[in-house]
Design brief:
Elements (H helix, E strand, L loop, with lengths): L4 H10 L4 E5 L7 E3 L1 E4 L2 E5 L4 E9 L2 E7 L11 E17 L6 E8 L5 E9 L7 E19 L7 E9 L5 H23 L1
Antiparallel strand pairs: 1-11, 2-5, 3-4, 4-7, 5-6, 7-10, 7-11, 8-9, 8-10
């Protein structure tokens, strides 16, 4: 059977386009969360619960933001975002009230746990402008981890998460596409034998 250009284009259209996604904390009710899911991505915190809470605008963060400090002030750990079908890029911003210097980190890993890319940024003491962390990789990103270090590690607010999701075929769509290809093959055989 000959694969025509329209079949390739149809397969690309049916598998779902990769695209930019966001995790918008402003649409969530303030409160305690164990995980958040969005467009094939799941956000969790290594030590359990985390907060979504409203804050006054502070540099790159505003509205509802993500923080772990109030549950875990003495044991900060990173947040993790896992991608069901892989990701290509990820960005997140952070800020706080500027009373101390904060260093944020963002690390991207493949499915075997190998580090693919990393980003760090520091907001100086006395500044509430915040910073943006970003990573990208040609190898599919299975998950990212982000957090902060410093005297009050984990005391920052996280906001504006966005990521580029890899295209993932939906099982039902792929089954329909396979049936269509089988039908096209049967039709081609019938024409050859006639």
């Amino acid at each position: 059977m000959k694969i025509t250009p329209w079949a390739v284009a149809a397969l690309a259209a049916l598998t779902g386009a990769a695209g930019a996604q966001t995790i918008d904390f402003d649409t969530l009710a303030p409160g305690n969360y164990a995980s958040l899911g969005n467009g094939g991505a799941t956000l969790t915190y290594a030590n359990g619960l985390f907060d979504v809470l409203p804050v006054a605008s502070s540099g790159l963060v505003s509205g509802h933001v993500l923080t772990s400090y109030f549950f875990h002030p003495d044991d900060p750990a990173p947040f993790r975002v896992s991608f069901a079908g892989g990701g290509n890029s990820f960005t997140v911003s952070f800020a706080d009230d500027g009373e101390d210097a904060d260093t944020g980190f963002l690390n991207a890993f493949d499915a075997s746990g190998m580090l693919l890319a990393s980003s760090t940024a520091t907001t100086p003491e006395g500044s509430d402008l915040g910073a943006l962390l970003a990573v990208s990789s040609a190898t599919p990103i299975a998950y990212v981890e982000f957090g902060s270090t410093g005297e009050f590690a984990g005391s920052v607010y996280w906001d504006n998460i966005s990521y580029e999701a890899a295209a993932v075929p939906e099982p039902a769509t792929m089954a329909l596409f396979g049936l269509g290809l089988a039908g096209a093959a049967a039709l081609a055989r019938r024409r050859r034998s006639a």
